[in-house]
Write a structure and sequence with these properties.
Elements lengths: L1 E6 L5 H4 L10 E5 L14 H12 L4 E5 H6 L2 H4 L6 H8 L1 H8 L4 E5 L18 H20 L4 H12 L3 H20 L7
Parallel strand pairs: 1-2, 1-3, 3-4
Helix pairs in contact: 2-6, 5-9, 7-8
Length: 194
C-alpha cells in the first residue's frame, strides 16, 4: 500500500477532511491534523507543521503539498502576511529537506496566486479592503482593459474616482504582498524538481 501525505490548502472541510473520506484501495492517505492548520486569518505555526511533515514523509511515497500552507500558514494568511521574501524563501526551501530525508518521495505541490476581489470586504483580506477593495481592483482593472480597448468616458471617470479613494500606503502594501506571492514560487531553486 502506498502512503500519501496531504498538506491541505487550509483547515476547511473541503480541503482538510473530505479527501480522507474518498474511498481508496491501494493508498493510505495521511492528512495533516486540524490543530496544525491554523484558522482563517490566523496562520498555522510553521515549525510544528514542518516537524509533522518530516516525520510523516520519512517513509511516504507521495506528498501532495500546498505551498500556501507551508509558506504562509494557509490560504487567507497568504493574503495578509507581512513576511519578508527571505523568510518566505526559507520556508519554501523546506521541500529540499524533505527530499534529502526521503529521496524517493514524489512531491506534487501547488500554490494559488493572490486574488484581487472586485468588492470591498475584509472578511478574507486586509482590514483596509473593507474600505478600498473595489478601488484597488479598479486601479488594476482599468489599465489592463485599456490595453485591449479604449475606456469609455464613464469608465475613465470611474477609474479617476477609484484612484482618489485609495490610500497609497494601503495600495503599496497590497501590491508588495501580491508581488512577493507571485515571485517566491518562481525563485525557488528546486522549481520543477519536486
Amino acid at each position: 500500500m502506498k502512503k500519501v501525505i496531504l498538506l491541505p490548502l487550509d483547515e476547511r472541510p473541503c480541503n482538510a477532511l473530505y479527501p480522507s473520506l474518498l474511498p481508496t484501495t491501494d493508498l493510505a492517505l495521511v492528512v495533516a491534523p486540524r490543530y496544525l492548520l491554523g484558522h482563517k486569518k490566523t496562520p498555522a505555526d510553521i515549525a510544528p507543521l514542518q516537524a509533522w511533515l518530516l516525520k510523516e514523509c520519512h517513509q511516504a511515497d507521495f506528498l501532495v503539498l500546498s505551498f500556501d500552507m507551508l509558506i504562509y500558514g494557509g490560504l487567507v494568511p497568504s493574503r495578509l502576511h507581512a513576511l519578508s521574501e527571505t523568510t518566505l524563501l526559507e520556508r519554501a526551501s523546506f521541500v529540499e529537506t524533505l527530499k534529502k530525508d526521503n529521496p524517493n518521495l514524489r512531491i506534487f505541490a501547488f500554490e494559488l496566486l493572490m486574488r484581487c476581489p472586485f468588492y470591498s470586504l475584509s472578511d478574507e483580506e486586509p482590514d483596509y479592503y473593507a474600505r478600498e477593495g473595489s478601488s484597488i481592483f479598479k486601479s488594476g482593472y482599468y489599465p489592463d482593459k485599456a490595453k485591449e480597448t479604449p475606456l469609455t468616458q464613464a469608465e475613465q471617470e470611474d477609474y479617476r474616482k477609484a484612484l482618489g479613494n485609495i490610500n497609497h500606503g494601503d495600495l503599496n502594501d497590497y501590491l508588495s504582498r501580491r508581488d512577493k506571492n507571485l515571485h517566491v514560487p518562481l525563485q525557488r531553486s528546486f522549481a520543477g524538481d519536486v
